[in-house]
Amino acid sequence: MKRRSILLVDDDPGLLRLLSIRLKSAGYTVTAAESGEEALANMSAARPDVVITDLRMGGMDGLALFEAIHQDHPTLPVIILTAHGSIPDAVEATRSGVFSFVTKPFDSQKLLEQVAAALEVSGGSESNDAPAAEDWSEHIISRSAPMKNVLSKARMVADSDASVFIRGDSGTGKELLAQAVHRASRRREQPFIAVNCGAIPEPLLESELFGHRKGSFTGATQDHQGLFQAADGGTLFLDEIGDMPQPLQVKLLRVLQEGQVRPVGATSSVPVDVRIISATHRQLDEEMQEGRFREDLYYRLNVVSLELPALADRREDIPLLANHFLQTLAQKYDKLARSFAPDAMERLVSAPWPGNVRQLYNVVEQTVTLSTTPVIPDSLVQSALRDEPGSILPFADARRRFEKDYLARLLQTTGGNVSQAARLARRNRTEFYKLLHRHQIDPSLFKAQDR
């Protein structure tokens, strides 16, 4: 299992060294910083599981560091150490959300107990008596701080039965996160069932969710158990809940309130014990204002909200994801591809990704299937991005592409006659030759085609 990471901050190099040794010997990965400013710089590269900081430091003190951390990482536990312990300091720190306040000199064992307690509260504890939960988030590949914040919050809520509402653009991985919450929960041994509420017609969706009795409508030739009953004891993931028709919203609300479902055509209800995770790419605040989504259902579903960042907001994850997809797909298709050329990876990292992780997977899949060499070149990535529906090229790339196609069409029209092509473009001959040279276009090739 992954070792838990601690960011240790103290302007005393000797104490910093001593604490690092003790924490490392306890099995933690430790990053040391001698100032609050250095600590924040370290956090921009990797989010730790716990922060331990001295209170009195030159420059940014411990409380200022805590406030800066919690602006971006509100669930990250911070333990503050001080040689100037006082009741006012402790009260101020704990009221503002600091996890604990430890005075120097301190007992090492007590500090380790505080670290373990912080990890337990934040969902990062290694002392988990359910081995199946250890790999709860293994399918979510990320090293970005926004994703670590989401996963930390998800882990904290997983063991409760609170309904979870996942927001995020299409392709960000909402179902993967729902599966991760289920695997980290006490329901992990029971079913996880997902249904896309926008992909099933309204008459069928009611039967799909709640079941029906034989003869209840045309085509109901036998009893059908709905997804609520199939997920009994486990988790039901309602994807694109914003697309659910209003009549079904009323029935879903009743199920959530009463804990029982009544199949279509049945005269009695059936009790169900189901944890609900729902998701949407829609702005439900606007949907409620327009009367398209019930406010009472929204608050029943949105007990805890998790928001997945767009891929463009976690670009540091693109190389990780692209290489992971590459290895998986190369094995699937028995291809030679092993890596991306540096300029190909640069293009992947800088692309706009309106389709998020799903679009990245599609692009990598296309490059792998078309690759003939161990290193995937930039030309294949560029072609795959261009072929993606709705993809938007950066302005410089779009301009280069237009210029190249425009010049080629002119030369095709004039049979490779540069002077004539320059006149059509209303450019002098010298400037036109410079454009051809920039795009590595040889006019003689068009003359050969003309013959």
Question: Would you write up a description of this structure?
Answer:
- With 451 residues, this protein is α/β, with parallel strands linked by helices.
- Helices cover 48% and strands 12% of the residues.
- The chain is built from 20 helices and 14 strands.
- It has helices at 13-25, 36-45, 62-72, 87-95, 108-122, 145-158, 174-183, 202-210, 227-230, 246-258, 284-289, 295-301, 318-333, 342-350, 356-370, 378-387, 395-414, 418-425, 429-438, 443-450, and strands at residues 5-9, 29-33, 50-54, 78-82, 100-103, 164-167, 192-196, 235-239, 260-261, 270-271, 275-280, 304-307, 339-340, 375-376.
- It has a five-stranded parallel sheet, with helices on both faces. It has a five-stranded parallel sheet with strand order 7-8-11-6-12.
- β1 (5-9), α1 and β2 (29-33) form a beta-alpha-beta unit.
- The chain is flat and about 80 Å long.
